[in-house]
Amino acid sequence: PVNTYLAGNIVRVATYSGTIASPAGGFQDQNGVPADPTTVTLSYRPGPGTSVIAIIYPDARIVKDGVGLYHADLDTTGTSPSATWTYEWSGTGAIIAAADNAFIATAPFL
């Protein structure tokens, strides 16, 4: 299922799930060991009909939590009406990988 958030909230998207101390996923080498790509990019589209926004680490909007572990906080303010946000984390260079996901931001019922 796709997570749903009220528009105006900050939504954290990450390359992993769980905690930093015990993560699941993240960027990994061919042996499953956490590893950092040479370049880490977060690309997202804040709803249909909008332009893709790409952020490349070390842009301050991407936070490195550990080896292979990154997150960013997306501001859903202004989402109206409800919209599905799509995003993709990609790594190139030393580690080549990509993973995409989505969430829904719903407009307030006021």
Could you explain how this protein is built, in words?
- This protein is 0% helix and 53% strand.
- The chain has strands spanning 3-6, 10-14, 16-18, 23-25, 39-45, 53-56, 62-66, 69-75, 83-92, 97-106.
- A hairpin with a 4-residue loop joins strand 3 (16-18) and strand 4.
- The two termini are 26 Å apart.
Give the tags.
110 residues, mainly beta
Radius of gyration: 15 Å
Low-confidence stretches: none
Termini separation comes to 26 Å
User: What value does the average pLDDT take?
Assistant: 95
What is the overall number of helices? Answer: 0
Q: How much strand?
A: over 45%
Estimate percent helicity.
Answer: under 10%
How would you spell out the order of helices and strands?
Answer: EEEEEEEEEE
Shape: elongated
Structural class: mainly beta
Extended strand count: 10
Report strand order across the widest sheet. 1-10-9-5-6
Major sheet summary line:
5 strands, mixed
Q: How is the topology of this model organized?
A:
Blueprint: E1 3-6, E2 10-14, E3 16-18, E4 23-25, E5 39-45, E6 53-56, E7 62-66, E8 69-75, E9 83-92, E10 97-106
Parallel strand pairs: 1-10
Antiparallel strand pairs: 2-8, 3-4, 5-6, 5-9, 7-8, 9-10
Brief characterization of the structure:
By secondary structure, the chain is mainly β. The protein has no helices and 10 strands.
